[in-house]
Amino acid sequence: MSDDSPLIQSLRTAVAAAPGDVPLRLHLAELLLGAGQQDAAIAEAAVALQHAPGDAQARALMTRAMGVPAQPPEPMPEQAPEPAPEPPRTGFDWKAAETEVGDLLPPRFVEAPLAVDGSGDPGDAEAWEVESTGTVRLADVGGMQEVKDRIEAAFLAPLRNPELRRLYGKSLRGGLLLYGPPGCGKTFVARAVAGELGANFLSVSVNDVLDMWIGNSERNMHQVFETARRQAPCVVFLDELDALGAKRSRTQNNGMRTTVNQLLTELDGIDSAANEGVFVLAATNVPWDVDIALRRPGRLDRTLLVLPPDAPAREAILRYHLSERPIESVDLGKLVKVTDGLSGADLAHLCESAAELALLDSARTGTVRLIGMKDLLAAAKGITPSTEPWFAAARNVAMFANEGGMYDDLVAYLKKRRKL
Ligand SMILES: Nc1ncnc2c1ncn2[C@@H]1O[C@H](COP(=O)(O)OP(=O)(O)OP(=O)(O)O)[C@@H](O)[C@H]1O
Ligand SMILES: [Mg+2]
Question: Partner of 101 at 20 to 30 A CA spacing, among 47, 90, 246, 389?
């Protein structure tokens, strides 16, 4: 990290050289905490606890680093008004639903039709597809060191250590919300986290959960989590979480509330025995549209910005997309330089276009030739970063709606790139 003091830097080196030295590591953690690097301090304390699970000093430090009061009370939202987490619903409030959608749907739909999608009874073969433990690990994610460090500190380190999990069970519940411009690796990172945890991966787009029929969206949501519980350890990845944002949806507006509440119920149950081994990650391109009730402590309270790939990441991505194409004398270093700002998806598109150029050329001249730097550079010229519109929108949010420092990472990046 760039802003480390010289003392912290040399302690880091010392700790790297003697990873089993618990007092040394705790000293480093203490300094990190003092320097306001809470996440880094947690990560160090976690490793210390792995070496010495019973160490009182390590535990005390961890407690402080996590900002957990000695006897953690139920984490509570700071402001009262917005919808309190409702107790688990026992029945569906048809009356309220009817008034809510009265002007959108004719009354004959009031009864929740079962199996409208023709998929048969609920509860038969899994409706949601679970990928078995994948082979993608964080090490396969090229570059993006900061993202990896934060995932390690905020998510993996505490989870890996059963001692810690018991100690901080309450405060460790809840999930991680990945956000950032499209095509920059959110889904990829989430899959890698599942790989790290040795967990199955259940990826659902919130849009697929939503159903126009009253009551079905909640049932779908419940089924997603039931499936995950059956397949535990399992990472539930909720993509396009913003689809639940009440702000944007016009057609389904009030009915959405009950779906959000269902999700809250599932999330709030995440530390109960039934949810052992169920981890929740979510992603969105528009975090400012995500229902704030979902971001309260104990829910999706930790956020992680996934930015366009840095140089090592671009190299990894380009290497991957060129691996099965006929190329010659490709100077990856140069290509990485000229592709600054492109997303993973843009890079894939670039390789595709370069192949097309070479193919057309071969067809025109009648002599087959391989894909070379010429094609790749020409393709790169023709591509404008697809993330530009996202940054234009994000800029406004960073300037005017950075409540509670939620978008500090974004602000820092925009400043660094002189976009703010
Ligand atoms: N750091 C990386 N290393 C290797 N490959 C990467 C990296 N980042 C992204 N990719 C690749 O880029 C592509 C796009 O990533 P992904 O689909 O995860 O983006 P996303 O943020 O989920 O996009 P969307 O917002 O459209 O859902 C993937 O094919 C992934 O393999
Ligand atoms: Mg995605």
Answer: 90
**Atom 9 of ligand 1, nearest CA residue:** 185
CATH for 6-65?
A: 1.25.40.10
**Span 311-381 CATH architecture:** Orthogonal Bundle (1.10)
Q: How many residues make up the chain in this entry?
A: 420
Q: Which residues surround ligand 2, an ion (CB under 5 A)?
A: 187
Q: What is the DSSP string of 2-53?
A: TT--HHHHHHHHHHHH-TT-HHHHHHHHHHHHHTT-HHHHHHHHHHHHHH-T
Task: Extract the runs of DSSP E, i.e. beta strands, from 256-339.
Answer: 278-284, 302-305
- Probe ligand 1: pick from 141, 145, 184, max atoms within 8 Å of CB? 184
- CA 96-282-317 angle, to 5 degrees, is 150
Please state whether beta strands 130-131 and 200-205 pair in parallel, antiparallel, or not at all (unpaired).
antiparallel
Which residue, chain included where needed, has tokens 């390590």?
58
Number of CB atoms found within 10 A of residue 20's CB? 12
Contacts of 235 (CB under 8 A, 6+ apart): 190, 193, 194, 197, 199, 200, 201, 202, 279, 280, 281
Q: Are 199 and 235 in contact (CB under 8 A)?
A: yes
Structure tokens at 92: 């569906």
Query: Amino acid letter at 409?
Result: D
pTM, two decimal places:
0.69
How many angstroms is it from 239 CA to the middle of ligand 2?
A: 7
Its CATH architecture, for the domain 126-305, is: 3-Layer(aba) Sandwich (3.40)
Give per-residue pLDDT as tens, 26-72. Answer: 999 999 889 888 888 878 887 887 777 778 888 888 778 776 554 44
* Each residue's pLDDT tens digit, 271-291: 566 677 788 999 999 998 888
Higher per-residue confidence, 98 vs 370 = 370
